[in-house]
Amino acid sequence: MTSLVIQTAFLGDVVLTTPLLEALALRHGRVDVVTTPAAAPLVETHPAVRHVIPYDKKGRDRGLGGLVRFARTLRAERYDWAYLPHRSLRTALLAWLAGIPRRVGFEDGWPRFYTDVRPRPKTGHEVNRLLALVHPALTGGAMVPAMPGLATTAEDRAAAEGFLREHGIGAEFIALAPGSIWGSKCWPYYGELAQRLAARVGIVVVGGPEDTGLAEEVVKAVEGGGGRWRAVNACGRLTLRQSAEVIGRAAVLVTNDSAPLHFAQAVGTPTVAIFGSTVPSFGFGPRGPRDQVVELDGLPCRPCSAHGPPRCPLGHHRCMRSLTVETVLHAIEETGALRRRD
Ligand code: SF4
């Protein structure tokens, strides 16, 4: 029995799908995964995964012609089952065109292309909602919480260690992830936070190449602040798994509601998650025992969209601007991660 999971959404969504991969591997044996070329390294080392097939939906495989060609290559593998956590039409068509006899998807996706339609829990964490594809009898809060997982290699560990050593970051540091592709989800005071923290601990700024500008501002703030410790920009200088390895070594990660939050959950690092235009009840909040959420309660415009708009539609961005550095420092203390280091 061979099964395929098609998950071509954002990096964070791919990380949140890993408990589903584990559940399916228990049922069918190791699974194959179709995902984006960017996300492929996140799952290719996962023990539940047999083979990763990159689907370049915005490049080589774009358009209807690319979809049909890609489906033909999947057809040759003669999968028995397709599981479709991503509710897009493209995903549904891909499994259907590949002729996979059992196609399991959510009722609020494209059920006419599925053979097995599952209700998608309206509440609960996204990890549990995705698990409903394989455990349809369980819904929302009734599910056993499962944490996502990322497997790094010895090479990833060596590269992360070398990067930290090369930049003078010792065993004690805090990771900051100031970026998000949705601007309204970005907290604006990471520089000031880093400046304050640098009196006590080293700082590593993590993120993708697109976050380099933000990261440089944070590093400059620390350099100008005369703190005792250093800050280094790791954005775009490490692979995804190396970044996960760095986050895994951090005492705590401070992040917006974005992919690094899910990386930290996967590697077990205490997290301070700052929410602005979105809210944790959307199903993407942190769930570790020491994790903290920083958000502004009682703001009538909050939340203002499912993903968070590119910029505040009201112009004031009060959901984030009202969250002070002091509040975030307090949340870091609440994780207990720094207390042990004083
Ligand atoms: S409308 Fe409200 S919740 Fe949305 S970005 Fe602006 S301040 Fe934040």
Task: Give a brief description.
The chain is of the alpha/beta class and 342 residues long. The protein contains 13 helices and twelve strands. The chain has two domains: 3-138, Glycogen Phosphorylase B (Rossmann fold, 3-Layer(aba) Sandwich), CATH 3.40.50.2000; 155-341, Rossmann fold.
Mean pLDDT: 93
CATH architecture of the largest domain: 3-Layer(aba) Sandwich
| SS element count, helices | 13
CATH C-level of the largest domain:
Alpha Beta
Shape, please? globular
Produce the secondary structure layout:
Layout: E1 3-6, H1 11-16, H2 18-28, E2 31-35, H3 40-43, E3 49-54, H4 63-75, E4 81-84, H5 89-97, E5 102-106, E6 116-118, H6 126-131, H7 154-166, E7 173-177, H8 190-197, E8 202-205, H9 212-225, E9 231-233, H10 240-249, E10 253-256, H11 259-267, E11 271-274, E12 292-294, H12 318-321, H13 325-335
Parallel strand pairs: 1-2, 1-4, 2-3, 4-5, 5-6, 7-8, 7-10, 8-9, 10-11, 11-12
The site of iron/sulfur cluster has 13 residues, from α12.
Structure description:
With 342 residues, the protein is of the alpha/beta class. The chain folds into 2 domains: 3-138, Rossmann fold (3-Layer(aba) Sandwich); 155-341, Rossmann fold. Helix content is 35%, strand content 15%. It contains 13 helices and 12 strands. It has helices at 11-16, 18-28, 40-43, 63-75, 89-97, 126-131, 154-166, 190-197, 212-225, 240-249, 259-267, 318-321, 325-335; strands at residues 3-6, 31-35, 49-54, 81-84, 102-106, 116-118, 173-177, 202-205, 231-233, 253-256, 271-274, 292-294. The strands form 2 sheets. The chain has a 6-stranded parallel beta sheet. The protein has a 6-stranded parallel beta sheet with strand order 9-8-7-10-11-12, sandwiched between helices. Strand 2, helix 3 and strand 3 form a beta-alpha-beta unit. The radius of gyration is 21 Å and the shape is globular. The termini are far apart. Residues 138-144 have low confidence and may be disordered. The site of iron/sulfur cluster (SF4) has 13 residues, from helix 12.
